[in-house]
Structures are given as C-alpha cells and as structure tokens.
Design a protein that fits this description.
Fic-like fold; 3-stranded antiparallel beta sheet
C-alpha cells in the first residue's frame, strides 16, 4: 500500500483512509460494536460445533450441498434482478450440458453454477487456511459470473472507467461509488493490502468475509456483477477457512431480507464514525438464522431415517402389511405431502400401489395408519405423515 495515500486513526479501532484523485478519502474500517453481535456469533459457533458431531451421511451431505447452492444461485441472481423462477434455475443447474447459446438470465445462472463449484465447497481439513485475496482472484470471480453477459459498459474482469449509481430511495438511498478507473485501481490495491493485513487476518473468518463483502461492494469496481462478486468473495473466504453449507446459505438470506440488506449497507456507508455495526449485525443475524435452518434440516433427515427403521420394524412384526409399509416409505421421500383420501387411487405417486385393488382398500389402509398414529390430519384437510411417531410426541402422550 502506498503510504503517502493512506493514514490510520489512532483511537484503537483501525480505520485506513486512502486518498483518491476524484473521490476524496475512502475508508477501510474494522470499527464495529463487538458486544452487539457477540451473542449471534457465539450461538453460531456452538450450533455449528454441535452439528459437526452429528452423523451426516454422505448422501445427505451431497444433497445439502446441491440444494443450498441452488438456493444461493437463485438468491444472489435475483438480488441483481434476474427474473428466472427458482424452478427454472433448478432446471438449468441440473442440465448435463452447459453449452450453447442462452439468454442473458440463463447464462448468469450457468456462470454462477461454475463459480459456486469452484469456490463454495471447502477442501480437506489439512488444506484449510486464511485465504490470501488478490486483485487477480477478484477479477477472476467477476470474469466468471459475467462471462457472456457483458454489456456496452462492462468487460468481464476489468475495472470500469465510468460513473455508476447504486441503490434507490426505497432501499436506503442512492450511493455513488468512485467514478474513474485510476481511483478504482488505487482503492483495489489498498483493499487487498488491507484485507490481507495481519490485523484483518486475525479477525474471526466470518467477520473477515463480511468485511470483504462490504468493502468490495463499496468500491463497486466493475461495470456489472459487483454484488455477485462480493458475495462470492465472502463465500470463498469462509469456505477456505473450513465452513460448509452456511456460506452458501447467506445469499438466500440476503435475498429474503433484501430491504434490510441494502439499508444496513447504506447506514454504514453514511456513518461519520466509519461504524460497520449495522452491516455486521445484519450479517451475524444471518449466520444465526442459517445455522438454525441447517440444524432443522439435518434433524429432520435423521428423524426420517429413524422413521424408516421404525416402519421396517413394524412390518417385521406384522403390525403393518406390505402395501401399508410401502405407502409410508414413499411418503418419506416427500414428507410434507398431503394425502387426499378420495383421490388416492389417482395420485401419480401412489396409484401403482392400488392399481389392482378394490376402492375400499386405500380407505382401510389409511384408517389403519391413522389408528397407529403413523398418519395424522393435515391443516386444511387430508392426511400427512406423522414425522414424530415413536419420538417426543409419543413420550408426552399427545
């Protein structure tokens, strides 16, 4: 970093100020209220440690990775205005071939799939490290996420040389990042120097990732893809430090809370004290929410595995007939499915079980499964799988 262009505050909360040609001084800051976010971070680490000790089978790990990356791709693209539905995003991701001409919105999804494949999954424990971020690395991310979708004012991976405005009055106001390439080049060199400094590298990895996300978005160095690049940089820093699942979940959290996301950013950008508490508080709440969602997902999977064993035991004891057992095992694959008894024989998923039976057979099966409390009434009518049979619900006699 060029010392003549920088200075630091001496108040114990480091703020690095970089002098630019046309944008005045721009600050890189680690000023935030650590007590205001400590509870979220403590809960996050405690829950993550607890989850790491749970028996997550390879099949579940693979399914989680795929599902969470799909949601992340949908969320981070939607934040930037991509109009594709989550269902269409899933279709594109699952296509075996990614070649061929595509519309811009579809190409963005293809690009993000490759970017998350490269940067979202942590390597073996022995390879975990503090990611040394370079300008080349950031440029590579941007080049990847904007490949084939660059407009008149954007070359993938290249810094812009024109003014832009970010945000709107409905999301905390408009922000005007640095205007010219010379200032962006100065700031990007200072940014990676600061991000790789001993002080910042000592920060808890998720905090360092959030600082990277915020400051790269503040500089807004590219003509397109700045938000996607900043969020993927956040993911890469956390993944390289060994975090799994949660880094990819954050993009969907930002999408679901998009107003708060932009407002937190604007509050920090306008702070005279260079205080990042609003953004880091919002980020820490996201960590907490994501790890709680992850805990629910894993617990549900383990519970469904145990239910499958329970059904097999009931079949071995001849409490269940084979068809009743098969019906329950099918429902385990879609545990939120609501059965409509009159239409059971025409349900595409379940009709094969009853194709050669009388009309009374499905009614008898459903009655028997209700008597055993394996099926229970669903809200709004119909029947659903009792996911707690044999668990806590039975222990309290409900």
């Amino acid at each position: 970093m060029n010392d003549k262009n920088t200075d630091k505050s001496s108040d114990g909360n480091p703020v690095v100020k970089v002098q630019t040609f046309k944008s005045g001084k721009v600050s890189f800051t680690r000023v935030f209220d650590r007590e205001a976010i400590s509870n979220n971070y403590i809960l996050f680490e405690a829950l993550l440690l607890s989850l790491s000790q749970m028996p997550i089978l390879p099949a579940l790990a693979s399914r989680l990775d795929a599902e969470l990356v799909r949601r992340a791709i949908f969320g981070t693209a939607a934040i930037e205005g991509n109009p594709l539905s989550e269902e269409r995003v899933a279709e594109i991701i699952e296509e075996p071939s990614l070649n061929g001409l595509r519309e811009r919105a579809e190409q963005e999804i293809v690009n993000l799939k490759e970017a998350y494949r490269l940067h979202a999954v942590p390597g073996p424990a022995k390879d975990r490290e503090t990611l040394a971020v370079s300008e080349a690395f950031i440029r590579e991310i941007n080049a990847l996420v904007t490949r084939g979708v660059g407009g008149e004012f954007h070359a993938p991976g290249q810094y812009r040389d024109h003014p832009v405005e970010v945000g709107d009055l409905g999301h905390g106001g408009v922000y005007k990042p640095p205007k010219i390439r010379a200032d962006i080049e100065t700031l990007m060199a200072a940014f990676v120097d600061w991000l790789n400094s001993e002080e910042v590298r000592k920060e808890w990895p998720p905090v360092r990732a959030a600082l990277a996300h915020y400051h790269l978005a503040l500089i807004h160095p590219f003509g397109d893809g700045n938000g996607r690049t900043a969020r993927l940089l956040e993911v890469a820093i956390m993944a390289r430090a060994g975090y799994r699942y949660v880094p990819t979940m954050l993009s969907n959290y930002y999408y679901r809370n998009i107003d708060a996301y932009y407002v937190a950013f604007r509050e920090c950008e306008r702070s005279r004290e260079h205080d990042l508490t609003p953004f880091l508080r919002f980020f820490s709440e996201g960590l907490r929410e994501c790890v709680l969602d992850l805990q629910t997902t894993i617990n549900t999977h383990i519970r469904l595995l145990a239910l499958g064993d329970h059904y097999r035991t009931l079949r071995q004891k001849k409490v269940l007939g084979q068809r009743q057992h098969d019906l329950l095992m099918i429902l385990l694959q879609t545990p939120d499915k609501v059965l409509q008894p009159p239409a059971l024989r025409s349900d595409p998923l379940l009709a094969p079980l009853y194709r050669k039976t009388s009309e009374a057979t499905p009614r008898r099966d459903l009655k028997r499964l209700q008597e055993l409390r394996l099926l229970v009434p669903a809200d709004g009518g119909g029947l659903r799988l009792n996911q707690f049979t044999g668990f806590a619900a039975d222990f309290v006699g409900s």
